[in-house]
Amino acid sequence: MDYKKIDNKDIEYILSIIQDKQRVFHGENINEDYSHDELSATKKMPEVVIQVLTTEEISKIMKYAHENKIPVTPRGAGTGLVGSAVPIYGGILLDTTKMNKILEVDTENLTLTVEPGVLLLDIGKYVEKLNLFYPPDPGEKTATIGGNISTNAGGMRAVKYGVTRDYVRGLEVVLPTGEIIELGGKIVKNSSGYALKDLMVGSEGTLGIVTKAILKLLPLPKKVMSLLIPFPNLDMAISTVPEIIKSKSIPTAIEFMQREVIVAAEKFLGKKFPDNSSDAYLLLKFDGNTIEEIEKDYEDVAKLCLEKGAFDVYISNIKQREEAIWSARGVFLEAIKADTSEMDEVDVVVPRNKVADFIKYVHELEEKHSIRLRSFGHAGDGNLHVYILKDELTEDVWQRKLEEVMEDMYKKQRELRGQVSGEHGIGLAKKPYLNQSLSPTTLNLMRGIKSTFDPNNILNPGKIF
């Protein structure tokens, strides 16, 4: 790519737009954190970092960058896992975390209008006080809503409620050319031309920069209860999931986990899990407006699990146990990371009835490649998180084994008619596997969309494909 390098003239122009010089960093003043995301091994420093505050600032910067062929990388909290926010061509990095205002809650239309830098954690707390509910529930609560929209984040409640895309009603977006457009709105139904709003969700900052989002809310369920169900082995646990889905009792979440991950979480938190004696567990959450409504659902599922060979059913009907279970589940990624020297992850999604096949194959790969693998995930929607651990391997051996394991896992994903990513996106790390997974015609359509939005290929270049 033949991009312009930032010079003093560019810095002067940027400072003429951003009056507050303390929000512009260049050269040695740039924090090293901006060179990487949460997990990606790829690092590259931007030439300039701008902490933007308004749509107008972003618009002017994008217009200038477009005219001068300067690459621009949008970034939220940097919690991504595939390198989407890594500025691989240098250029300008736009940090949107200071655009963190909740602009409006509309209790008549049940919508929340926010800037992209608002944290998922803060959205949850804010709407809960109003007895409202934003259902998408990705594990990383310190991620920004802009980042969630960019990757179409899913999370644990997707099995009942769906993913981020299902809750984005409207977007304000700055295009790579600097133009500002509005997509969707507070309307519930829309058959007015191509669904550009839905195209923007999951585009990983390659088609436009989200500067405002209108989110759909629901009334807050009054009661929540969880079941922790130990099984003799993971195969028995996972094979029970399709039976639960087929029953009329749809849980809010169906998670699977194994003993090794629970023990790592206990060590990380310094707290005991309610039970860690079994090899495998299902963790189910139910919500509703009355205890009676929830009890009917969980009793049917508990009976089904016991019939399928579960050892027991632990009911978290007290707040302390509920918090103990879900706080452990919330730190699985951090606990695994703390238990090894380095790691990489696979975020595949397969049909729900193929989850057991994929996890069984993961166990075979541990032996085949003599490397530690840890897995957990959303059994209810087929989205599996598998972590490959470096431990004491030398760098050469680690890189070789990492590539071999990845190749095997993504080959299995294709065999099972799954896809490369369920919620983390493609970014840099998963590009080769997306190319293998999609047809040339499909990839060419995606490239055509990109070139229409971004003719000079300046916005987050080098990502996805």
TrEMBL record:
Gene Ontology molecular functions: FAD binding; oxidoreductase activity
InterPro entries: FAD-bd_oxidored_4_C, FAD-bd_PCMH, FAD-bd_PCMH-like_sf, FAD-bd_PCMH_sub2, FAD-linked_Oxase-like_C, FAD-linked_OxidoTrans_Type4, Oxid_FAD_bind_N, Vanillyl_alc_oxidase_C-sub2
Highest taxon in the source lineage: Bacteria
Keyword check for Flavoprotein: yes
The protein's required cofactors: FAD
Residue intervals of the FAD-binding PCMH-type domain: 42-220
Oxidoreductase as UniProt keyword: yes
Keywords per UniProt: FAD, Flavoprotein, Oxidoreductase
Name listed for the protein in its UniProt record: Glycolate oxidase
